[in-house]
């Protein structure tokens, strides 16, 4: 029996703040804004009992100070001088148990977008993953800190999670990412199918997230660095090194200018 629900709280332009909750209490992931969280809690008569951070970008932590003025709750995440909010430091390889929801998260260090980026994976149900700005629907985060090679290693780690894992990323970027996937992976029918499914969902103002690891492996170019067709397209653009890391790097650089 599941002891929790996960609900999207849309925030800012295209962020999702994920609420993990039962009938009385809630944790939120990456509250970049305060008001939508307070409204969600009030509408569902929930008390906030904790906050999870994936990384220190403002659109993920900007709502924490004001939330904590109302609910003085623990804030979990990777300690960093640029993030004054963390009360409980989490490192890759550690576990975080949230007994109220019957959840135990494995903490996965996923540097490459920012150094302090971590992801939260729990095997409950079909598996749930909060991956912030590292993996998106049909795309991945930009490399702001560290190296593209680190980002590659991080995505590779996430791609080893079970296919059925539900992937809860922090932005609604799927449609724009698929425009790039259609160019670098033009003959992939799964990409074409996802483009039309995504168009329908967005036209109905519905979220394209969560997706599954299986869907990402089938349609996300940044997990398809071994795909012969993608490699061929990149070779036509001058790629010579076809190692996974070189293919991934070429895709990331192309996407940056796309
Ligand atoms: Zn970010
Ligand atoms: Fe972000």
Question: Can I get a quick summary?
Answer:
This protein has 258 residues and is an alpha/beta fold. The protein has helices at 35-43, 58-61, 64-70, 148-159, 174-184, 189-203, 213-219, 228-236, 244-257, and strands at 5-11, 15-21, 25-29, 47-52, 75-77, 88-89, 95-98, 103-109, 118-122, 128-132, 135-136, 139-140, 166-169, 211-212. Bound molecules: zinc ion and fe (iii) ion.
Characterise the protein shown here.
The protein is an alpha/beta fold and 258 residues long. It has a single domain, classed as Ribonuclease Z/Hydroxyacylglutathione hydrolase-like (Metallo-beta-lactamase, Chain A, 4-Layer Sandwich). The protein contains 9 helices and 14 strands. It has a 6-stranded mixed sheet, covered by helices on one side. A 6-stranded mixed sheet has the order 7-8-9-10-13-14. A two-stranded antiparallel sheet has the order 11-12. Helix 1 (35-43) links the parallel strand 3 and strand 4 (47-52). Helix 4 crosses helix 9 and helix 5 (174-184) packs antiparallel against helix 6 (189-203). It is globular and about 55 Å long. The model has no long low-confidence stretch (mean pLDDT 97). Zinc ion binds at residues 55, 57, 113, 133.
Question: Key terms for this structure?
Answer:
six-stranded mixed sheet, 34% helix, 258 residues, binds fe (iii) ion, 14 strands, 24% strand, binds zinc ion, alpha/beta, Metallo-beta-lactamase, Chain A
């Amino acid at each position: 029996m599941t002891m929790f629900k996960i609900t999207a709280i849309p925030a800012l332009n295209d962020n999702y703040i994920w609420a993990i909750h039962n009938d009385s209490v809630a944790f939120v992931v990456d509250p970049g804004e305060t008001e939508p969280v307070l409204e969600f809690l009030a509408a569902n008569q929930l008390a906030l009992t904790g906050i999870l951070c994936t990384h220190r970008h403002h659109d993920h932590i900007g709502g924490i100070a004001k939330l904590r003025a109302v609910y003085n709750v623990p804030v979990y995440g990777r300690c960093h001088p640029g993030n004054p909010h963390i009360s409980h430091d989490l490192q890759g390889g550690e576990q975080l148990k949230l007994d109220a929801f019957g959840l135990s998260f494995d903490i996965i260090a996923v540097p490459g977008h920012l150094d302090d980026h971590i992801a939260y994976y729990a095997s409950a149900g079909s598996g749930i993953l909060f991956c912030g700005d590292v993996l998106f629907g049909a795309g991945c985060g930009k490399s702001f800190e560290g190296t593209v090679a680190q980002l590659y290693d991080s995505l590779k780690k996430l791609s080893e999670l079970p296919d059925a894992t539900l992937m809860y990323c922090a932005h609604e970027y799927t449609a724009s990412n698929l425009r790039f996937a259609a160019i670098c992976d033009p003959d992939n029918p799964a990409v074409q199918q996802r483009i039309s499914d995504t168009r329908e969902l967005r036209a109905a103002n519905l979220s394209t997230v969560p997706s599954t690891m299986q869907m990402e492996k089938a349609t996300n170019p940044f997990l398809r660095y071994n795909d012969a067709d993608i490699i061929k397209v990149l070779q036509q653009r001058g790629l010579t090194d076809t190692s996974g890391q070189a293919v991934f790097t070429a895709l990331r650089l192309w996407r940056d200018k796309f």
